[in-house]
Specification:
The protein is of the alpha/beta class and 789 residues long. It has 4 domains: 2-100, Phosphorylase Kinase, domain 1; 112-182 and 382-491 and 522-561, 3-Layer(aba) Sandwich (Rossmann fold), CATH 3.40.50; 185-377 and 607-641, Dimethylsulfoxide Reductase, domain 2 (3-Layer(aba) Sandwich), CATH 3.40.228; 660-784, Barwin-like endoglucanases (Beta Barrel). The chain contains 29 helices and 29 strands. The strands form 6 sheets. Strands 6, 7, 8, 9, 16, 17, 18 and 21 form an 8-stranded mixed sheet that branches. Helix 3 packs across helix 23, helix 4 crosses helix 24 and helix 11 (268-281) packs across helix 15. The longest helix has 18 residues, at 124-141. It is globular. Bound molecules: ligand MGD (2 copies), iron/sulfur cluster and molybdenum atom.
Length: 789
């Protein structure tokens, strides 16, 4: 393909035309290539000195790309047509923000240390010594439980693995988690609960093959724009798939649906229990598959019994006939693909709801087959690697912390005693970690590549605890974020294009991202920072040799390959050289293999064997651990588990004082706290400020018109925002969570707060511990007449 669609920075054609031109195709055909490219204004391909292999890190799609370099600067990007993820395409964030977002004039170039209340420039030696001194003192005086590490879904695999080893075998603290807890903890947990281990069953080729797609709380059109192009291309071709969307808002995704179930926020589980019941009472269950490959049908039957379409419709605020139509589409389509994301994972009863999607597929025997897949989606570009490497609350290689053999394997690998590796209790989850910091038992908190002062729930509380005198906070970032501004030491990091490493997208596809340019100033790769800390701390194996003896990313990667050997996420057959040859390789690929499977579980042999599984599972209502003995008694032994829970409803239901259900989420044009997209002119112009979506009925009863400025108040805080009257379901309101304060006038968080997390509630799913960002009650009142009215 030699025809490239080139966008220049400054030309906003792909802002209006988010998904680009259609390339229709039929079921079972290859998705046609379309080569997307963006270059700095005034440049042509002939001006580019080099193209450097990478993948986009602005969402979990992980589109294969090359970075354009001229005179030692990143000047553009092009999609790789030979990559099975994107077939050449890139979306607005990839085209405009991936490289421009790295070039902000205010990049951190030197370490900073807080002196007399102010952050002042320091040398690397001074900054690292300040960290090491505090760390050593606390380890001596208090012990490892004084240390917490809170990382990301945006570092590279090598960096997570280094952090996991230094945290677990060097420091020895169980207090390690990532913003993956806010993002894909429920995806991982739902996969563990149903199948025994993490690992995405489906793949994007399932879009090419399916007859129907169910999007469960996933606004695919806005949040993985390239994969939505793939769906649009199928919809524009012959025999298009039928589409069912479950979302309280009429999103761009929902607009394309044959059935849109605009349920009340927080009622997913009731709907799912009903859909399972429909399969059962109408004889749509693949009994042979269920008998051979699952356990738990009897308990599930009892659980769904009361959930008639009329009952579910009442609870969810839907028409029972629409629920029946959705059930029929699921039952009658030979190949159904499901994708699940934050409308489920951040809503009440997250794990229970996500597991019911797995159940629907198991009941129909629809897994591991072309077009019949499950995508328990990821959000962040490298969330998968944090889960694999165990810099979150898991053990590396999907090992089970309750299984002594698994802990021993790691002890052998790292040359330390098994007792050094924390495994006496469940690893600490993010919300608990911040609670310990608030209470003072954690007094050393190292935050890398995440911005909790904007992204955690209940921000007034988070700001206060991060600013505490007795909490030593290290922040490692590209920019002086709201969080970095509260730190004791700020470390300037090299980011995408400025360092080499690998990462794995939502569908198990690994890419190598090579260093294209030098980082600004003295900024250093996160891996180098972690290795430097480990060295200065003198972390050693029992034989006296260094715990992390790696000189660079490829060494760290090789060590990780060893850790992954024999586990579900086996990387032993994927080398850096392989990744330089093939654009995107799926795990597992074992040593000696040259091909990867597209889908997991093609033979319906699930990783649930007690000695192999990643978790013995939990009670989906309470989160209580099942434990090894009870798990063995279930006799999963390679079968999947049909787990369920009774519906319990949202924790903070609306009432007279706070009558509206709050939900939060994303704009297509911004990524999270906007550290990159908020430094990209095209995207700033496309979505310059926060807004509140309100249904016409709710606007009218409050005398609010489009563009009016309102105050939104919850029991925890408030925001001020202009209103967009939209087709969100009545009784629900929506705010994007992107708008923090780094680019706002000082004091804005008090005077005119805009971060949706001022409002959100400190509550989490009992099983995955993922916070409920899509829950809570608010009131809305008009403050000012808007310019638009
Ligand atoms: N443009 C853009 N793309 C992104 C990101 C970004 O910041 N910007 N971030 C990336 C990341 S890290 C993630 S995690 C993903 C998230 O991707 P998505 O999950 O698609 O995004 P959200 O907007 O958080 O939530 C999806 C939908 O859930 C709906 N929803 C709210 N409450 C409920 C409910 O109770 N039930 C149901 N069924 N639906 C509900 C919302 O209306 C919303 O449309 O996006 C990734 N891609
Ligand atoms: N209300 C509400 N809140 C939410 C959500 C929601 O839907 N609603 N969604 C949640 C979800 S799913 C997510 S994923 C989180 C995201 O929340 P955050 O992780 O806080 O958001 P980001 O803005 O992506 O922060 C990543 C930071 O890492 C920095 N960074 C980027 N690359 C590198 C690197 O290579 N090295 C280093 N050291 N730093 C780097 C960036 O500059 C940025 O400051 O927000 C969560 N919060
Ligand atoms: S879909 Fe995601 S990975 Fe692909 S270009 Fe857009 S932001 Fe980047
Ligand atoms: Mo996320």
């Amino acid at each position: 393909m030699d025809q490239r669609t080139t966008t220049s920075a400054g030309d906003s054609s792909r802002i209006e035309d988010v998904w680009g031109a259609r390339t229709p195709y039929a079921r079972g055909d290859l998705w046609p290539e379309r080569a997307d490219q963006a270059l700095e204004a005034g440049l042509t391909e002939a001006d580019v000195d080099r193209w450097v292999r990478s993948a986009c890190v602005l969402c979990s799609n992980g589109c294969g790309c090359d970075i354009a370099v001229k005179d030692g600067r990143m000047v553009g990007i092009r999609g790789r047509t030979d990559d099975h993820i994107n077939h050449g395409r890139l979306g607005p964030k990839g085209l405009y923000a991936s490289w421009q977002g790295m070039r902000g004039r205010d990049r951190l170039e030197h370490p900073l240390i807080r002196r007399d209340g102010e952050l002042v420039q320091a040398t690397w030696d001074e900054a690292m010594e300040a960290i090491v001194q505090r760390s050593k003192q606390l380890l001596d005086e208090v012990g490892p439980l004084s240390h917490g590490f809170y990382t990301s879904g945006q570092l590279f695999l090598e960096e997570y693995y280094a952090l996991a080893v230094l945290g677990k075998a060097g420091v020895g603290t169980p207090h390690m988690d990532g913003n993956t807890r806010l993002c894909t903890a429920t995806a991982a947990t739902a996969l563990k609960e149903t199948f025994g281990a993490d690992g995405q069953p489906g793949c994007y080729e399932d879009i090419d093959e399916c007859d129907a797609m169910f999007l469960w709380g996933h606004n695919l059109a806005a949040t993985q724009t390239v994969t939505w192009s793939r769906v649009l291309d199928r919809l524009a071709g012959p025999n298009p798939p039928r589409l069912v969307v479950i979302d309280p808002r009429t999103t761009a995704t929902a607009k394309k649906a044959e059935v849109h179930l605009a349920l009340k926020p927080g009622t997913n589980l009731a709907l799912l229990l009903c859909l399972e019941r429909e399969l059962m009472v109408n004889g749509w269950v693949d009994q042979e598959f269920v008998d051979a490959h699952t356990v738990g049908l009897t308990e599930l039957q009892a659980q769904v019994d009361e959930w008639t379409p009329e009952h579910a419709a009442e609870v969810c605020g839907l028409d029972p006939e629409d629920i029946r139509r959705a059930a029929r589409i699921f039952a009658e389509s030979p190949r159904v693909l499901s994708t699940v994301l934050q409308g489920f994972y951040q809503a009440p009863q997250a794990t229970a709801s996500a597991c019911q999607v797995n159940n629907l597929h198991l009941l129909r025997g629809m897994i591991g087959k072309p077009g019949g897949g499950i995508l328990q989606m990821n959000g962040q570009p490298t969330a998968q690697n944090n889960r694999e490497c165990g810099a979150d609350g898991d053990l590396p290689g999907f090992r089970n912390w309750e299984n002594p053999d698994h802990v021993q394997q790691l002890a052998d690998l790292w040359g330390v005693d098994a007792l050094k590796i924390p495994h006496w209790a469940p690893p600490t989850h993010a919300m608990q970690l911040f609670r310990y910091a608030e209470q003072g038992s954690i007094s050393f908190l190292w935050i890398s590549a995440t911005n909790p002062a904007v992204s955690l729930p209940q921000l007034p509380r988070i700001r206060e605890l991060l600013a505490k005198e007795d909490l030593f906070v290290v922040v490692q970032d590209l920019y002086l974020t709201e969080t970095a501004a509260l730190a004791d030491v700020v470390l300037p990091a090299a980011g995408w294009g400025e360092k080499t490493g690998t990462f794995t997208n939502a569908t198990r596809t690994v890419h190598l991202s090579e260093k294209a340019v030098e980082p600004p100033g003295e900024a250093r790769a996160d891996l180098d920072i972690f290795l430097d800390y480990a060295k200065r701390m003198g972390f050693r194996r029992n034989d006296g040799s260094p715990l992390l003896p790696w000189a660079g990313p490829e060494d760290a990667y090789r060590a990780w390959q060893d850790a992954s050997r024999g586990r579900p996420c086996d990387y032993t057959g994927i080398s850096y050289d392989d990744l330089r040859r093939e654009s995107g390789i799926r795990w597992p690929r074992r040593e000696g293999e040259t091909e990867s499977v597209q889908r997991l579980y093609t033979d319906a042999d699930f990783p649930s064997h007690p000695e192999y599984c990643e978790s013995y599972g939990h009670d989906l209502l309470t989160g209580g651990s099942v434990g090894q003995e009870s798990y063995k008694a279930l006799r999963p032994d390679g079968r999947a588990m049909l787990k369920s829970a009774p519906y319990s409803g949202p924790h903070e239901p609306p009432d007279d004082e706070y009558p509206l259900r709050l939900t939060t989420g994303r704009s297509v044009y911004h990524f999270h706290t906007r550290t990159k997209t908020g430094r990209t002119t095209e995207l700033i112009e496309a979505a310059p400020e926060v807004w509140l979506e309100l249904a016409p009925e709710d606007a009218e009863t409050r005398g609010i018109a489009e563009g009016d400025i309102v105050e939104v108040v919850s029991r925890r805080g408030r925001i001020v925002a202009p209103v967009r009257v939209s087709d969100i379901r009545p009784g629900a309101v929506f705010a994007p969570f992107h708008y923090g304060y780094w680019d706002a006038p000082p004091g804005a968080e008090e005077r005119r707060p805009t971060a949706a997390n001022e409002l959100t509630i400190t509550e989490w799913d009992p099983v995955s511990k993922q916070p409920m960002f899509k829950s809570g009650a608010v009131q809305v009142r008009r403050l000012e007449e808007g310019a638009a009215s």
